[in-house]
Amino acid sequence: MADAPEATDIHRTRVENPVVEARGLTMAFGSTVLFRDVTFQVAGGEVFVILGGSGCGKSTLLKLLIGLYRPSEGAIHILGEDMEAAQGAARRQLLSRIGVMWQSGALFGSMTLLENVMLPLEEHTRLPRAAREEVARVKLGLVGLSDAANRLPAEISGGMAKRAGIARAMALDPSVLFLDEPSAGLDPITSAGLDQLIKDLARDLGTTFVVVTHELQSILAIGDRCIMLDKQAKGMIAEGDPRRLRDHATHPTVRAFFRREAA
Q: Which parts of the sequence belong to the ABC transporter domain (predicted)?
């Protein structure tokens, strides 16, 4: 494979004991390379954003990180464990330490919000029902949905559904939460409220967040650091503090994204 074009806005931060680490990730489907040599580290307790235009591989990278796909090349370490090497019970244990919220929230429509949040506890613990319900109510309280516990997904707003999805992803007290486009489809006020929730959870619980998004205001509001993928470059073209990239980017695509100019 040919080397990826050199990026001018990659400002790497060396992380001691990274919670998430990608080393030289390449993903190809047949002869088509989606991205190559993606390398980064995520520190404990930070909000790390993966951004880029349509078709650059953001969601595919997320699926690699949580073990749904295997990379064509490279390695992924989650909480110090090699994702590829972990098999059987060890892999299940590792996966129980991460939480995922998909873009839609992925709530089961026939279940109340309380029942949705209880579901991971039913599948992965031996807690009695009363204890599972208590934990689920605590998680709903953390996202501001205590009063909506007995409502069905069809009876709540899109923003509430996203919050409920986060509550369910938090059910097993994961060390890392992966969020796929959490602000997609939300109005600016609701989106800002969700951004604040993510910041509060990261600060108050010490949870690490890896967030895939293309929403500029959210990136600037929640991101401690970010990487940017690019379809044309087939890889990373930026890494660093999103506010620094906004103010000092030199790569035309990065500058255009953060300043909303024509590249």
A: 20-258
How do residues 63-111 score in pLDDT, each as one tens digit? 999 999 999 999 999 999 998 888 888 888 888 899 999 876 689 999 9
The number of angstroms, rounded, from the C-alpha of 107 to the middle of its chain's C-alpha atoms is: 17
For residue 191, give every residue at least 6 positions away whose Cβ sits within 8 Å of its Cβ, in sequence order, or none: 159, 183, 215, 217, 218
Structure tokens at 26: 């390449």
In the chain, the amino acid numbered 113 is: L
Q: What is the DSSP letter of 150?
A: T
Class of 20-259 in CATH: alpha beta
Which strands, in side-by-side order, build the sheet including 98-101? 9-10, 235-240, 225-230, 47-52, 208-212, 176-180, 98-101
Q: What's the pTM value of the predicted model, to 2 decimals?
A: 0.91
Say how far apart CA 56 and CA 169 lie, in whole Å. Answer: 26
Continuous segment of H or E residues that includes residue 68? none
